[in-house]
Each structure stands twice: as structure tokens, then as C-alpha cells.
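Input C-alpha cells:
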């Protein structure tokens, strides 16, 4: 039975956007919405997470699931927002900015 999915992408190759557009609508750049079966959803996510697809970019999938919130979140790539399970609820933790080399000042 089809259910609604949302896939958000950042800095992914054009061929991936084209593949997602075959099954969903790109409502704004990088945001894909559609109603697909669980099998198609999983195949689309396999295309997103396939070897080398999300290299410098990131992707997020939200789909219905039998949870208290009614949905599940999957991510790929590097993101500042990280989904964390907290006693059965998916919360979003903000990761700090990447550590950079600090300049050492001389005496």
C-alpha cells in the first residue's frame, strides 16, 4: 500500500535527482515528495545511499512507521542535525561545528 515519503537532499549529483524525480515530485530544489510502496521507498533509499552517491552532500528520508510519532527518519552523508532515539522518540541533536585547527600564538 503506498504511503507518503519525503526525501531532502543537499549537494547530490544530478543523476540522483533525476532518479528521485521518476517516482516523486521535486516541490522545491532538493525536496522530493511522493506516495510510493515500501519496496519502492527502500529502493530509492538504496539509490541515495549507493556507493559514492552522497559524497560531499547529505540526504534525509522521512516515512511512516509504527512509532509513537508515526514516522521514521533515515539519514546519509554528513549533517549537523543528527536523529537520536530517546526512549522511543526520535529527537534531533545539533552537532557542533567541525573542529578546526586552532592557531597557536607564539610567546
Amino acid at each position: 500500500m503506498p504511503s507518503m515519503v519525503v526525501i531532502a537532499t543537499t549537494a547530490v549529483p544530478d543523476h540522483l535527482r533525476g532518479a528521485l524525480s521518476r517516482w516523486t515530485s521535486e516541490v522545491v530544489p532538493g525536496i522530493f515528495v511522493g506516495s510510493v510502496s515500501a519496496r519502492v521507498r527502500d529502493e530509492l533509499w538504496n539509490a541515495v545511499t549507493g556507493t559514492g552517491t552522497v559524497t560531499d552532500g547529505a540526504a534525509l528520508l522521512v516515512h511512516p512507521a509504527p512509532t509513537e510519532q508515526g514516522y521514521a527518519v533515515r539519514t546519509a552523508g554528513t549533517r549537523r542535525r543528527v536523529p537520536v532515539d530517546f526512549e522511543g522518540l526520535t529527537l534531533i541533536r545539533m552537532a557542533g561545528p567541525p573542529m578546526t585547527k586552532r592557531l597557536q600564538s607564539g610567546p
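Residues 3-94 form a domain with the Alpha-Beta Plaits fold (CATH 3.30.70.240). The chain has a mean pLDDT of 87.
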